[in-house]
Amino acid sequence: MPEPATPATPVTFPPAFLWGAATSAYQIEGAAREDGRTPSIWDTFSHTPGKTAGGEHGDIAVDHYHRYRDDVAMMADIGLNAYRFSVSWSRVQPTGRGPAVQRGLDFYRKLVDELLSKGIKPAVTLYHWDLPQELEDAGGWPERDTAYRFAEYAQIVGEALGDRVEQWITLNEPWCSAFLGYASGVHAPGRTDPAASLKAAHHLNLAHGLGASALRAAMPARNSVAVSLNSSVVRPLSQDPADLAAVRKIDDLANGVFHGPMLHGAYPESLFAATESLTDWSYVQDGDLALINQPLDALGLNYYTPTLVSAADPQAAAPRADGHGSSDHSPWPAAEDVAFHQTPGERTEMGWTIDPTGLHDLIMRYTREAPGLPLYVTENGAAYDDKPDPDGRVHDPERIAYLHGHLRAVRRAIAEGADVRGYFLWSLMDNFEWAYGYEKRFGAVYVDYTTLARTPKSSALWYGQAARTGTLPAISEI
Ligand code: FCB
After folding, report:
1. Which of 79, 128, 159, 235 is 20 to 30 A removed from 50 (C-alpha atoms)?
2. Is 173 a catalytic residue?
3. Residues that bind substrate, according to the entry (predicted)?
4. Mutation test residue for ligand 1: of 29, 384, 433, the one with most atoms within 8 Å of CB
5. Which domain holds residue 88?
């Protein structure tokens, strides 16, 4: 559902609001084999035939590793006051264990210093899906030890950057790591084992808790520790009790499985019941829930589109493409009795329905569920088939409309009492969109993949004006 028509009164945000853009290491850095970096699961996966569109990979990506200074200057020109990026684990701790590689850490120090010199606040994500391959070879996320390895890595990065970075995010979208990585297999490491995916989810939770504690021990107390969840807005096709039960199940598997232990120190009982055919959860050891349930300073919400479900006849249920690629294997363990439907309405190039009301509803849900916890929208954005005009400019009015609608939804939530402190557009620039390779362009900045030249799209100019003034420009103003 669209937000109501453009209001007469200006849509103005609180003065300290962060206007950021987000990226992740594997999607932009390139330099895959430089300065001691070793392969992550995404290097291996993208180099495996048939796993990504056109066999594309992040070896060069958009070469941010070498162009970071220009990229930061471009962010400043656009008018951003915040930037969320992730650290490549195998660049700073190549085998996933043992001592750090200074050259790897130096890259991030230089990047952060460059950002700070331009008045752009860095927000660091420790894990955006790129597990060192050696740790996958040792069992990956279904293996408990991976969580302890993550804590060690968190300590290394916290010690190296904690004096200059205040905002920290342990994991990005653990749902994708667990269920796209180990159940549907459309993401690295490409396994299709639903029982292992639930184990992975628990160990990701444990990694978050151990990592949050390690960060706190390594950094000044003023720093903020958060996690970014792609919490789904799950809606029923009808009010039929069977459809409402389908919502309950998917809500547990999308949201409760992570925010339950992280925010409330418990998994939903209904999750245990729903998944008993696959697992007895005996890998949840005594004391784990307390380790996971660390006090947080903020919660990051990533939102793109809602999820519409109903009850299904298990015999007839088709496995569902999950938005990040398609597979014969469902990313939803033990949910053969749930059917997924396309939400009606206009869609982006990903086929994702545009629904800013979903973002509002998500923010209000966490406002109720975690009272007092500051919220950030750590990802929101849209892919379109952008092309330069003959004059070289890139006009993307659809993206401006998307951003406008979603930022208005954020503002409406703030007016209703939500404590939203910032918004990070996905993504700063076009980049490697995982299984889709380079064919989906999410950037506010256009990247010519032949020359790697960057050209801010009209949405970047629109968003920059919003960032500079704290007020959303009218769609027609750019
Ligand atoms: C999110 C991911 C991000 C990007 C966007 C489109 O799920 O965190 O890396 O792929 O989707």
Report:
1. 128
2. yes
3. 27, 128, 172, 304, 426, 433-434
4. 433
5. 26-297+304-353
